[in-house]
Amino acid sequence: MSQVPLLEARGVSMRFALKGSGLFAARIGTVHAVEDVSFTVVEGETFALVGESGSGKTTLARTLGLLYRPSAGQVRFAGTELTALKPRALKRVRREIQMIFQDPYASLDPRMTVSAIISEPLRIHREGNRRSRWETVRGLMDAVGLSPALANRYPHEFSGGQRQRIGIARALALNPRLVIADEPVSALDVSVQSQVLNLMQDLKETRGLTYVFIAHDLAVVEHMAERIAVMYLGRIVETARRDDLFTRPGHPYTQALLRAVPRPGAGKRKPGQALAGEVPSPLRPPPGCPFHPRCPRAEALCRRDPPRLEQVPASGHSHLAACHFRGAVDS
C-alpha cells in the first residue's frame, strides 16, 4: 500500500445557522456539526470514521465530498485544495471522488431504470457514446453481482441489498480513486450486510480503490478498516490503527463503544453495555472536553479545558486520543 496522502482534512469545520419558523424568523443559533477535524487518508487504505448518531459523521462525509463547502479549514485531494477550486475545475476532480449513500431506497431515482442510473455519471461528464456507456453498464452490473438482463428494470423491483449494489455500480462508473461510503450497510438486513461488505472488499482489491468508510457499528469497522478515527459531537477524539484501537483504546468514549458491541459467549451473543446518557446538542456543545457530561472519569479539568489529540502512552506514534487522562483510562 502506498504511503502517499490521497485525501487530507485540515481543520475542517461545518456549521449551520438555525432559524425559527416563519417569514421573519430570527436566528436561533449555530449548529456545530463538525469542529476542527484533521486527518490524512493514504492511497489504497480503508480509513473508517465511527461514532454514534449525531456525532457528525455524515456531515463530514458530505463535506469531504464537497457536497457541502466547509465553514472553515481545507480539504485536499492528491495535493489539490478542493475548497479553492471554481465549479468547472471542481467538476473535473469530482469524477475521482464518488459516494455510496446510506439509504439505498432514497438514493436512487425511482423514475429511472438501472441502466440510466448507472450511466448518469458518464452522461454528466460526457464520457463515451450510447453504445460504450451500455457496455460500461454491463460490466459494472457484472462486477457488483447483478445480471445485465435486469438493466431496464426500476429500483422498486429490487431488494435493499440489490439497490445498494446499484448504488455501488454508479459510484464506480467513472473509475474513481476515492469512494466515500456513508454507512453503506446500516439500512440492510444483517444477512445481506456481509455480502455487500465482501463485495466492497473485492472491488477495492481489483480496482485499487481507497475508502473513507463511515459507520456506527464497530464490528463492521473491524472487518473493513486499516485505520479508524472515532468521532464525538463533531470532533475526532481518537485515531489509531485497527489493532491498536481494539486492543488498547485510549479514550473513555472509545472504550464505551467497544463495551457496547455484543460478544459471543455461552452459546449465544451477549448483549453489549449501552453507553449512559445522550449526545449533547451540537447547538450548545459543553465547554471543555465534549465527552465530560457522560464520562465516568471526568474531573474539573475536563469541564474547563478541551484536551488535544496527543499520543497515547505505551502505544504507537499514530495512536492519538483527546483525553486528559488517556494514559490512565481503564481497560
Please tell me about this protein's structure.
The mean pLDDT is about 90. The chain contains 10 helices and 14 strands. It is globular, with a radius of gyration of 21 Å. Strand 7, helix 6 and strand 8 form a beta-alpha-beta unit. It starts with a strand and ends in a 10-residue tail after the last strand. It has about 325 residues and is an alpha/beta fold. An 8-stranded mixed beta sheet has the order 6-7-8-3-9-10-14-13, sandwiched between helices. Strands 2-1-4-5 form a 4-stranded antiparallel beta sheet.
Structural topology:
Blueprint: E1 5-19, E2 27-42, E3 46-50, H1 57-64, E4 72-77, E5 80-81, H2 87-94, E6 97-100, H3 114-124, H4 130-143, H5 160-172, E7 178-182, H6 190-207, E8 210-215, H7 218-224, E9 227-232, E10 235-241, H8 242-247, H9 252-259, E11 263-265, E12 268-270, H10 300-304, E13 310-311, E14 320-321
Parallel strand pairs: 3-8, 3-9, 6-7, 7-8
Antiparallel strand pairs: 1-2, 1-4, 4-5, 9-10, 10-14, 11-12, 13-14
Helix pairs in contact: 3-4, 3-5, 4-5, 5-6
